[in-house]
Each structure stands twice: as C-alpha cells, then as structure tokens.
Amino acid sequence: MLLEKNLIGGTWTGGSDTLEIRNPSNLDEVVGTYGMATAADVNAAFAAARRAQPAWRGATIEQRSMALDAISRMIFEQKDRLAEIMAREGGKTIPDALGEVVRAGHIARFFAGEALRIPGEKMGSVRPGVDVEITREPVGVVGLITPWNFPIAVSLWKISPALAFGNAIVWKPSEKTPGISAAIAEIVAASGVPAGVFNMVIGRGPEVGAAVVEGADAVSFTGSAATGRRIAVRCAERMVRCQLEMGGKNPLVVLDDADLDLAADLAVNGAYFQAGQRCTASSRLIVTSGIHDAFAKAVATRLEKVRIGPALDKETQVGPVIDESQFEKNLKYVEIGKQENARLASGGNPLQLSTRGWFLAPTLFADTTNTMQINREEIFGPFASIIRVADYDEALAVANDTEYGLSAGIVTTSMKYARHFQANVQAGMTMLNLPTAGVDYHTPFGGRKMSSYGPREQGRYAVEFYTMVKTSYLAA
After folding, report:
1. What is the per-residue pLDDT across 15-58, written as a single tens digit (0 to 9) for each?
2. What is the residue-wise DSSP string for 167-205?
3. Which of 100, 114, 242, 279 is catalytic?
4. Of 245, 304, 324, 394, which is the active-site residue?
5. Can 279 be counted among the known catalytic residues?
6. Hey, what domains does the chain have and what are their CATH numbers?
7. 245 labelled catalytic
C-alpha cells in the first residue's frame, strides 16, 4: 500500500517516486511503501511555512505551550504503537524503542514549559532617561534534517524548541525511517499547531535535503561529518545560521584501579547496544596495561552471551543494523581491521537466524593502535577496538588524538584522575563510571571539533539557536 506521508501546508501528499521499506529483522516483510518528496515539494513547504509563521509568532506563549503539551501527551498515550513502528522499520529492540519514545515525550513536555519561560532582560542605560530591553524573537522558518538512528528523540529535540519559540518548520527526516516520521507528523498536526507551521518532506539528501538548506532561515542537522561540512559551507554562503551534530569516535578510558566488572559492562553497553548505531557509542576502548588483559577477556566473554535477534523478540538484546548499506560497511571495516593486523577477539561475522535480516555478531578487535583506520573513522555498528596504553597520561593523549570530540568516558576509582580527565579531555560531554552513550533530555547535548558546530541542542541552551536577540532603547 502506498502511503502518502508528506505533510505540506496541512495537506498530506504523495510524491513522484516511491520508497519501499523492509523490516531489517525480517527482509521478507515489507513495512510500507512511501511517496518521496521532490525539491518542488520542499519549495511548496517553505511557501506554506512563510505564510503561517507570522501568526504562530504572534500566538501567546500559552498557546504554544499547550500545543507542545498535547504533543507530549499523545506520544505517551501512543508509546507502544510508536515503539513497534520503530522496531519494525529500524531494527531497534522494543525496550530501546520504548525508552526513546518516552524520552521524546519528556522532551516535548520540557519545551512546553520553556515556551512559558522565554528569557529577556531589562537593563539600565548609560544615558539618562533611556531604558534598555533585551528580547528574543523567533528566527523564522527553520529547516530540520534528522537521522534514522534516533528518529523520534532527535526529531523532537529539534521540533519542540522550534515550535516553543515561535518558528515554523520544514522537516526532512531520514528516508530510512519514514513510518515513525509520519507518525510524529500526525501527532504534531493533531496538537493544535496551525496548518503550515509544521511541514514534513520525506526524501533523499542530495535533492530534498539540499533544497531544505537552500530555503531555510536556519538549519539544524544531525548526520555525517561529510554532509555537515557541506551544509556549513552553504549556510555560510547564504549567511544563515546552522547547528550541526556529526558523530564521534568516542573513547572509554579504563584505568588499572577500575572495577573490572563495571568496566566490562560499561564497554558492552556503550559499544554494542542499539547495534552500536549511536553517535555517542564507545568505539575506542583505551585500557592501561595493568588491567588490559583481564578487561579484554571480560568483554569478549560478555559478548559471547549477548542475545542477537529480531527486534520484536522479547529475549533480544541487540537487533540488526538498519539496512544492507550499513551491514556491508560494517563488514568492510572488519576486513580493514584484519588487514591492519589487529586481532579479531570476537564476532565480526554475519549471523544466520530464524529470519533473514541484517544481523552481525558484535565485533571486538584487540592489539590495535590509535593510528589504525578502524580507530580513526566512525563505523556506526556493533564494533569496538581495544588500545593498550602505559598509563593515564598516555590514555588521555590517545583519547584526544581524534578529529571528533562528542562523548568521552573514564572508569576509575580515583577522583584525581576523574577530575583531570573531565577538565582536559577534548569532548563536549564526559562520563565517569558510566557508558559514553546515554544523556538526559533537559541538559545541553553536543561536542567539539568535527562532532558539533554551532549552539548546543536540548535543554535551556536550545533557545540560543531558535531565537534572535533584539536590543531595544526606549526614551522615558
């Protein structure tokens, strides 16, 4: 069945091309066939957004708050349905999917509150008889480009502040997860947000994504570093702001004094859950010599017990990767690791299960160096490597020796090293005795270097991107 799931100016439309989505846990199951938008559809969406935005900007803060509260309530009410959609089309296990849906509901609820707390300031002037007011205004029409790995949480942490602060939206979700994107759009459309304020166009990046970048007053993008770099260049040429989240090659440092069981559990959780398809995943396990061998053995032992299977199976801990392209990419890096003389300590092979799917045994390489390709490039799969170092100083140097800087963790019982790591690791987020993956919904999210560019996402810091500051002088 063809699903007409582009939303433009309050009307659901199809597209000139179609996209068939199959269940990555069961390739014999067609989840849906979707109409794909074109650049012309994107232009129509921007036209609708520009017509609708002035009225939304003029809406009361209570109206915007109530719309976001309605979005939050509908997400919570439909959490089981939304989680199943994500599991069927994206391969995310039901517990992971439910966790993400609940987080999205909390995000919308948080920004329902922020809509009532748009900050401003009143200042004195150096001139007598003059008052100064600093206020925030919406940017206008924002273009949002979101990924497939967290299709509801990342989308809501862009959509929610954009709406809370009075902007209109043209949203391009990933074409790999159109079903959950359409479900989100249905919820937003039913929330009381006027037609045209929120628009969704499903399509491929080179055509539809590029058209979003061309039409927006500001662009918020989550995806690959290569694409983010191109967006940054084009936004600079157009003199519009951009906000980019572009991945990571995140280190988890394990020191000799670490609790071995905790360290191994954190590594498996951070590197392999959600099939490793998280920008905050622990892909480089940097371990000091005294604990290295025991740690490598403990991680490999745990990986042998991880239950790989279909996403809807209640016993499954790690599901499939998203599609054939990602599957082949992961296998390519397994071969690269072998060619670089890294030792394959566990996994690295396709799995034949009861259903045809993109199942890969969790991959662990040992005896690696930080100069190897598998330690330089983001792989985005159930894949990690262990790097042996002599001591804390070398561990910190290796952790920082990367073009990325999103999340970094350390496992230690020493507050001296924990505090030094927190202050000196080149990352936007640090974790002490926690997985590198996993963040709260009310705190700022983002990194350094090639991981992030522009203002932070999430929490109160989102106001910096989605509003413009105006300074007004008033004669008394």
Report:
1. 778 889 999 999 999 999 998 999 999 999 999 999 999 999 99
2. -EEEEE--TT-HHHHHHHHHHHHTTTPPBTTEEE----I
3. 279
4. 245
5. yes
6. 2-246+451-475 (3.40.605.10), 250-432 (3.40.309.10)
7. yes
